């Protein structure tokens, strides 16, 4: 809570918003004001998933009615890993009972070991997750480059992301500048988290953070 109150949040609004939901549930001093500020900044930034989180923050404050939807305690980073994996080999599902994310490899392993769940084919138990590929992640690199103040670094990175192997070359070039690499990881994680949140909300299951009750 102390770290959140200091700010600035900038590229960490998704992460900050989830932290503030926990702080609000714990009745932390000053949390409501910070929650309102975070919601406002999310709507101003307007990345994918930002409006979904801003709505959650407003609902937690009681500033808007909560939707009659069942929320899930889902690891958004794990979900993002499936959504933006290789469509040819990826995919997975979410356990609607627990919110646990199952990548395809874990499902296949359970089948091979004869550990299938009795409800393995129950559509009321599982939410399928299909890979959407890396196009959005490639766009993240383009947006990151466009925002760089150093034109020389931006030019080098623009060349790096041309053709096959773009993601590897991009990180290899960024590795020359530790500060930029750290900024990229924060930027990328924020984008992944927002897209996973938006996907889950579109599926009808807004994500829930620890410490907040589930809607019934």
Q: What does this molecule look like?
A:
The protein folds into 3 domains: 2-61, no CATH class; 76-132, no CATH class; 135-201, no CATH class. The chain contains 10 helices and 3 strands, in the order H-H-H-H-H-E-E-H-E-H-H-H-H. It has helices spanning 2-6, 13-25, 31-45, 50-61, 76-83, 104-112, 135-147, 151-160, 166-174, 178-202; strands at residues 92-95, 101-103, 126-129. Strands 2-1-3 form a 3-stranded antiparallel beta sheet. Helix 2 runs parallel beside helix 4 (50-61). The longest helix is centred in the C-terminal third of the chain and has 25 residues, at 178-202. The model has no long low-confidence stretch (mean pLDDT 87).
Secondary structure layout plus pairing:
Blueprint: H1 2-6, H2 13-25, H3 31-45, H4 50-61, H5 76-83, E1 92-95, E2 101-103, H6 104-112, E3 126-129, H7 135-147, H8 151-160, H9 166-174, H10 178-202
| Average pLDDT metric | 87
Q: How many whole angstroms does the radius of gyration measure?
A: 19 Å
Largest sheet strand order? 2-1-3
Number of domains: 3
Order of helices and strands: HHHHHEEHEHHHH
Strand content: 5-15%
Distance between the termini: 29 Å
Overall geometry comes to flat
The tally of helices reads: 10
Structural class of the helix and strand makeup? mainly alpha
């Amino acid at each position: 809570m102390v770290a959140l109150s200091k700010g600035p949040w900038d590229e960490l609004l998704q992460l900050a918003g989830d932290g503030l939901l926990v702080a609000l549930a714990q009745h932390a001093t000053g949390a409501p004001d910070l929650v309102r500020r975070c919601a406002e900044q999310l709507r101003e930034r307007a990345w994918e998933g930002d409006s979904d989180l801003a709505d959650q923050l407003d609902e937690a404050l009681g500033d808007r009615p909560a939707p009659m939807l069942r929320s899930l305690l889902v690891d958004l980073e794990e979900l993002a890993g499936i959504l933006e994996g290789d469509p040819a080999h990826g995919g997975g599902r979410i356990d609607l009972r627990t919110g646990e994310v199952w990548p395809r490899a874990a499902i296949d392993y359970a089948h091979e070991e004869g550990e299938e769940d009795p409800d393995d084919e129950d559509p009321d138990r599982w939410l399928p997750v299909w890979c959407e590929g890396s196009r959005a992640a490639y766009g993240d690199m383009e947006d990151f480059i466009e925002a760089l103040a150093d034109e020389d670094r931006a030019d080098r990175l623009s060349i790096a992301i041309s053709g096959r192997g773009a993601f590897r070359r991009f990180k290899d070039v960024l590795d020359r500048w530790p500060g930029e690499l750290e900024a990229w990881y924060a930027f990328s994680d924020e984008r992944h988290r927002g897209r996973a949140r938006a996907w889950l909300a579109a599926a009808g299951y807004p994500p829930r953070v620890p410490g907040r009750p589930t809607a019934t």
